[in-house]
Amino acid sequence: MKRRNFIKRTSLASGGLFFVPQFLKAFENGLPERTNYKKLVIIQLKGGNDGLNTIVPFRNDIYYQNRQRIGIQKSELLNLNSELGFHKSLLPLKRLFDNGYVSIINNVGYPNPNRSHFRSTDIWQTASDSNQYLQSGWVGRFLDETNAKPYGAIEVDESLSLMLKGNNQNGLAITNPKLFHRILNQPFFDNVFNKYSNDSHLSEHNLGYLYNTMIDAKSSAAYIYEKTKTSSSTIEYPKNAFGKQLKTISEFISSGIDTQIYYAGLTGFDTHANQTNRQSRLLKVYAESIEVFVKDLEKNNQFKDTIILTFSEFGRRVKQNGSNGTDHGTANNVFVIGKDLKKNGIYNSLPNLNDLDDNGDLKFSIDFREVYATLLDKWLGIENDKILNKKFSHLGFI
Amino acid sequence: MKNKHILHLYNRIGFGILPKEVEKLHSQTRSEIVDTLFQSAKTITPLYIETSFLNSTSTKKIKNKSKRKELMKLNRKKVRELNLIWMGRLMNSKEILREKMTLFWANHFVCEDKNVLYALHYNNTLRNHALGNFGDFVKAISKEAAMLKYLNNKQNKKNSPNENFARELLELFTLGQGNYSEKDIRESARAFTGYNHRFDGDFILKRKQHDNGKKEFLDRVGNFDGNDIIDIILQQKQCARFICHKIYAYFVNDKINSSRIEEMTSIFYKDYNIEKLMKHVLKSDWFYDEENIGVKIKSPIELLATIHKTVPYTFQKSKQQILIQKLLGQVLLYPPNVAGWKTGKGWIDSNTMVTRLRLASVLLNNAEISYSEKDDFKAIVNSVTNEKRRKKAFIKTETNWHIFNKNYESISNEELFESLIICPITSGTKEIINQYKDLPKKDFCIQLMSLPEYQLC
C-alpha cells in the first residue's frame, strides 16, 4: 500500500481525525516517493561498556589472568554456547537471543582507535576515519540524501547530537511532543510565522533559512503531536530514564509517523572503579527495557519492520586496573536485534586475547562502518557509499 | 559615517553598539572611526585566573593517584571558571576588536585543554597575536603546551612519528585540504619531532627525540625544523588565500566573493600582517555594501553578548551560563573537535532555533527551559522520579533594566528597532512591529529580540 493512502485510511479508520488538517495535507503532498518504511533504532551505551564482561569467554585463561578480581566465573553466567556466556543481568536479552532475535557482532572497531569518549563518539556518529574530522553525522547525511523532513530522524533528548546533523537537513531532538508543540504554539511565534510569506528571494538567504527552519520545526512538532497524541503504550516499561526513552520511541513508531531512524542512549558505563555492581545495574536497566520494547513492538505488529542497533563508543582494556575497574579500550561487541535476522546468534568469533596492541587493547576485526553499510543497503535501501563517503562491504546479519 | 554603517561595523568587530555611542561617532569619517578602533585594540589585557593551587605540585606529586584525581577535579572546575571569565571579558571589554579577533582565532587554531594553566596561556597567546604577524602566530601556537597535547605533538618522536599535528597544521590551520600531499604530512611531522613542554607549560625541544635528517617538503629539501616548515608554508600564496577566505566568511559574508578574496590575499601575502589586512577590509567600500549588511547568523556567543550589550544581565548561578551556551551549541573552551564549530547555518537546527527565539524571554523574563546532561558519562540514572539526567530549570538572572532605561530613554520604539535589527525585514514582521509599537519599551525590546531577524547581524 502506498504510504499516503495508508495515512488517509488509518486517519479515517481510527475515527480520530475526520478531516485532515491543512498542514498534514501539505506533508502528504510533499512526501518523498520512498517505498521503504523500515525503522532503525540506535542505542548508545555511553561511557564505553565493558564488552568482555558483557559477553564472557569463560574458557579463556587469559581472560581470568587479566581480570583476577572482576572476572566473572562460569557459574555466574548465562551460557550461550560451550565458550561464551552473557552477563547475568542480561537475562531478558537472553530470552530474545533464544528466540533468534539477536545477532551479536564481536570485535567491532576501527583502525587507529581513539580512546577519548568525545572523539570516539564523534567517529561513530560521523562514520569518519579516526584522523578525519567531519562536521556532519551519518544519519544527518541519510536525511540529506533522502530529502527527508527534520522528523525523518528523531533523537529522544533535549538537544541534537552530531549524528543527526546533515549538511542540508538536521534531525529533530524531542522528548515530549506535547511540550515541544506547546512551546512552538505560543501566540507570538504564531503571529510571526503566520505572517511570513515564503518569498522566493528570501529562501536563499540566511533569514529565509531561519524562517524555514522554524516553520519546519513548527509543522514537524504539530505533525508529531497530532499523530502521537492518541497513541499511548499500554505496556509497562521499567521506571527509569532509558525505559521512558524507549516508550516514547515505541509510541512514535506505532503512531505511524514517517520517521525512519531513532536515537537514544543510556549513560554511566565509564567504569574506571568498582565496576562490578555498576555494570550489573546498567546492563539490567538496558536488558529489561529492551525486552519490554520488543514486546511492545510485537504487540503493535511493528517488530518485523524494526531493527535495534546497540553500540558503545569503545570497549575497555583487557587488563583490569588497580581500582577494580577498567580503563578505556578499543573494539567492542555490537548487538543487532530484529525479527527476521538472516544470521542470529553469535555472528563471529571473539577477539583474540593473545594478540593485543601496544596498549594491551583488542585489535578489531570488523569495521563499524560495515555494520552501517549493511543496514543502509539492506535495511534502509540506500547505497552506503552515498552516506559513508566510500564503499564498505556487507555483513550477513540481514 | 552613516548610522547604519556604524552599526554594521560594530556588529562585526564587536557585539553591537549603544545609540548614544553611535551619536558620538556620527560626525566622524569611516577612516577616523576605524583608526580609533585599532588604536584601542593596541592594549593587550590578558585574561587572569588564580592558579596557585598548581604551584605546589610537581611531576612527581601527580604520580600519586588520589592527588592526581584531586588536581583534575580542581582543574575542571577552574576551566569552567575560565569560561565565565572569558565570557565576561567579551561582554565588557574596551579592546573590543582584539577580543573579537581572539574569538575568531579560537575557532581557527582550535584547541582544548583540561589543565587550566595551559588553557589560560593558550587563550592569551591567541589574544597577543590576534592582530600581529600570522607567521609568528603559527609558530607560537605550535609551541603551546595545550596544542602539543591536543594534537599529540608531544608524542611525536624521531623513531615513532605522530602525524596528527602536522596534518591539521596543513589542513586546518594554513593551507586547506588538497594543497599538499600525504608525503608532505609525513615529512613535516618529522620536522616537529622532539617538541615538548615542561610541567609549567614552557616549550622545550627534546634534542634526542628530534629527527635531524633531510626532509622533502612542498618541493623543498633541507634539514628543516618546525619553524622552517612554517616559513615554507607561508611562502605559498595559498596560505594567505586560505586565511583571507576564513576572515571574509567570518567578518564580511559567508557567501564568498572570490575577487574580494584575491584582493585581500595580495595584501596579506606581502607580510602576513593581520592588522593591515583587517584595516583594509574595514575601510573598504565593499565592506559596507548592502549585500553584506545583516546577512550573518550570530554565533551563540555573539547572540548572548549582543543581548547583554542592550540589557545587561548576570546569572545567579554561574553554572547556568554554561548550560545556556550548551543548549545553543557553543561552549567556550570546549570545541567539538579540531575542525571547530560549524558556523553560519551550522548553528541552526530546530532545537537551537527554538532556544534562540526563546532566549530573550529566558534571560530577561525568567521563562522556563528544560535540558539534559547527555555527555556526563559517569552519571547513573536509575529512576524517573529522581531523574538527574533530564531537568527543567528557570534560568535565574539579574537583569539591569535600569541601565537599559538610561541608555534608551531618549529614543522611540521605532529607533530601538533600528538599533537592534539591521537586516531587511519581511512585510509580515513590519506588521507585527506596528502592532506592538505602543508596548512599554522593555516589553517591545524582548519582542524584538525574539524575532528571527534578531538572529542576524
Describe it:
The complex is a heterodimer of chains A (398) and B (457). In chain A, α4 crosses α12. In chain A, the strands form two sheets. In chain A, strands 1, 5, 6, 7, 8, 9, 10, 11 and 12 form a nine-stranded mixed β-sheet that branches. Chain A has helices at residues 3-13, 22-30, 61-66, 91-98, 117-126, 138-146, 177-184, 187-194, 200-203, 206-228, 241-254, 275-299, 368-380, 384-388, and strands at 39-46, 55-57, 78-79, 84-86, 102-109, 153-155, 172-173, 261-267, 306-311, 332-337, 345-346, 366-367. Chain A is of the alpha/beta class and 398 residues long. Chain A is built from 14 helices and twelve strands. In chain A, a hairpin with a 4-residue loop joins β3 (78-79) and β4. Chain A is globular and about 70 Å long. Helix content of chain A is 38%, strand content 13%. Chain B is mostly helical and 457 residues long. Chain B is 52% helix and 6% strand. In chain B, the strands form four sheets. A two-stranded antiparallel sheet of chain B has the order 1-2. Chain B has a two-stranded antiparallel ribbon with strand order 3-4. In chain B, strands 5-8 form a two-stranded antiparallel sheet. In chain B, α7 (134-142) packs antiparallel against α11 (226-234). The longest helix of chain B is centred in the N-terminal third of the chain and has 28 residues, at 65-92. The relative contact order of chain B is 0.10. The model of chain B is unreliable at 380-390 (pLDDT under 50). Chains A and B meet through α5, β7, α7, α8 and α10 of A and α9, α17, β6 and α20 of B.
State mean pLDDT of chain A (0 to 100 scale). 88
Which structural category fits the helices and strands of chain B?
mainly alpha
Order of helices and strands of chain B: HHHHHHHHHHEEEEHHHHHEHHEEEHHHH
Which spans of chain B of ≥5 residues are poorly predicted at pLDDT below 50? 380-390
Can you tell me the overall shape of chain B?
globular
Radius of gyration of chain B: 24 Å
Q: What's the total number of strands of chain B?
A: 8
Mean pLDDT of chain B: 92
* 3D shape of chain A: globular
Rg calc of chain A: 22 Å
Roughly what percent helix of chain A? Answer: 25-40%
Count of separate DSSP helical elements of chain B: 21
- The portion of residues forming beta strands of chain B comes to 5-15%
- Summarize the main sheet of chain B: 2 strands, antiparallel
What pair of chains forms the biggest interface? Answer: A-B, 65 and 62 residues
Amount of helix of chain B: 40-55%
Largest sheet of chain A: 9 strands, mixed
